[in-house]
Amino acid sequence: MERPTDARSDRRTPVPVTKPEDMSRAFVAALNAGDLKSLLSLYDPQVRYVTRSGKIVEGHAGVRATLERLLAAKGQMRIDNTYCLVSGDTALVRAQWSFNGIGQDDKPIESHGNSAEVLRRGSDRIWRYLIDHPFGAM
Where are the transmembrane segments (predicted)? Predict the structure, then answer.
């Protein structure tokens, strides 16, 4: 299967998330546009991210490597929020997601899951992922 032409870029200006229920929409928009800069802006510098294998990566450096691999699949993601609970500057968000892309072997890949995320609102009033577990709500 031929990979789609990559018209995506990471030169967009990140859009700040001011409501936790908008986080999934911002993530999908940035991912589907191939916008690494915007994706990274959604994560708190102290983020902890749980990979599919259960490994925990920390900080922007760890998340960057994970997001770069996801972007390399040149896919499209869909996310439907299923739950959002806010307490002060902390929010718990759950969602169902699906992803379709192209693997390193040029074959189609499909993945889906139920995520659990903890968001934190910073002093700038912007929400960011503090904990991201794409498979945490299975």
Answer: none
First vs last Cα of the chain: how many Å apart?
31
Q: Mean pLDDT, to the nearest integer, of 69-76?
A: 94
The 3-state DSSP class for residue 56 equals: strand
* 8 Å CB contact between 15 and 27: no
DSSP collapsed to 3 states, 72-84: HCCCEEEEEEEEE
Q: Give, as one character, the DSSP assignment of residue 22.
A: G
Measured distance CA(132)–CA(65) in Å, rounded:
14
pTM, full prediction: 0.87
3.40.50.1260, 3.40.50.700, 3.10.450.50, 3.55.40.10: CATH of 20-133: 3.10.450.50
